[in-house]
Design a protein that fits this description.
This is 2Fe-2S iron-sulfur cluster-binding protein. The chain is α+β, with helices and mostly antiparallel strands. The chain contains 4 helices and 9 strands, in the order ββαβββαβαβββα. The longest helix has 7 residues.
Length: about 120
């Protein structure tokens, strides 16, 4: 299988690294590996599956408004369809919808209720 390693990090652990094939999403790979992640619509219109990109394993990142180096989901992921539930600012801050996102590089992604709470409500609900 060709693909990328994605480490799913939780504040309260445990962290899991999964291999995501080129033709699957992070959510699909997690389910294949027996890793439970929340999801609902599987279309990118809710934010149930949201994660936050922590780092690209190849060290690439861009500066945010404060000058701090921050990875961006636009660098690390491609989407099967536009992530309608995320604003441009949320995407720039590294938030990613795992149900429709496929990694373009090895990376680390924070998952769990804290990330979901940071984003707030879906604009579609």
């Amino acid at each position: 299988m060709t693909g990328h390693d994605v480490t799913l990090e939780r504040i309260d652990g445990p962290n899991r690294t999964i291999e995501v094939a080129d033709d699957e999403t992070v959510l699909e790979a997690a389910q294949r590996a027996g890793v439970r992640l929340p999801y609902d619509c599987r279309k990118g219109t809710c934010i149930t599956c949201v994660g936050r990109l922590l780092a690209l394993e190849d060290g690439e990142s861009e500066s945010d408004a404060s000058g701090a180096e921050q990875p961006r989901d636009t660098d690390a992921f491609t989407y099967r369809r536009p992530p309608a539930a995320l604003t441009d600012r949320e995407r720039a801050d590294g938030y990613v919808l795992l149900c429709i996102a496929s990694p373009r590089t090895d990376c680390r992604v924070e998952v769990g209720p804290r990330v979901r709470a940071e984003v707030g409500d879906s604009p579609w609900s």
